[in-house]
Amino acid sequence: MSEPDYSAPFTLYYGAFSLWSTMVRTTLAFRGAPLSSRPEMNLQKRVISIAPSDPQHLSEEYLTKINPKGLVPALVGPPAFLPGSDSSDGTVGDPVGTLSESAAISYFIAEWYPSLLPKEHEAEIRELMTTMRQINFAILTFGVNIQLPGMFLKVIEKMVAQDDISAAWRERLEAKKKNYANAPNVFTEPALEASSQRASELFATIQSLRERYNTTGNNKEGYIFSATAPTLLDAHILCVLARVSDAGRSHLIPPPLLEWVEHFRQGEVWKEILPGNSTLPKY
Ligand SMILES: N[C@@H](CCC(=O)N[C@@H](CS)C(=O)NCC(=O)O)C(=O)O
């Protein structure tokens, strides 16, 4: 079999204030050197507004050609690299040429840039990435009185009321509508309690790893497993810490980790990713 074309173009669709997008952008910022057999990934980034006033993620193009789930981030590239996935649970799988989960996108980037997923810590990193994805960060951000699903429902009602929209677009909008309508069953007090508990356990585990590897001897600098080489776990957890702290829930975070994330936020990587510093959307 011939080698794939490593100079082929990829596009990362991301939301400027989307937590899961920010994790992928930080992973890219931490990428290090590519595999010696490959050039830098030929990647362009395109911002997609997910604000109710300008819902580009609900557009026909995005829902029918980019990500049928209507979520950011999404990585689009040559099918030789991104074969697509069928979902067995009745939700929409990734079509050929797309990856639409922040973890899957980050693991894909780590195949290209191996320092993001060092072999000696891979099992630990994968386990903690899975744990992180059992936490509902939207409920930790917006609380149980989240307004966004209701706002999007109104937007979608108007869209589907038009007779002249394509069947494929209508189908995807109806699926989004169902999800937004289900929000009151998801954003509940017990769910907030469970996510707070899980987040605080996750942060305690990260803190104990930082103590175990003690990479710099101070709380502010370095990464979880190394003083100088960040992994994709650092990228994802730093974004989560910033968001949980911005959302007024820093009591869930051990003080040394707060020092770590505050220091990171003063640095160049964060300035480029979130020039206004805050992770919170303004809508
Ligand atoms: N499991 C997905 C979650 C992606 C996600 O929920 N993205 C949010 C922004 S952080 C989104 O696109 N929201 C728009 C909507 O709900 O319609 C991932 O890890 O990438």
From TrEMBL:
- Protein origin, superkingdom: Eukaryota
Task: Specify the GST N-terminal domain's residue ranges.
Answer: 8-117
> Which InterPro entries has this protein been placed in?
Glutathione_S-Trfase_N (IPR004045), Thioredoxin-like_sf (IPR036249)
Where are the bilayer-spanning segments? none
What does UniProt give as the signal peptide span? none
Gene3D superfamilies listed in its UniProt record = Glutaredoxin
This chain belongs to which protein, by name?
GST N-terminal domain-containing protein
Annotated organism of origin? Coniella lustricola
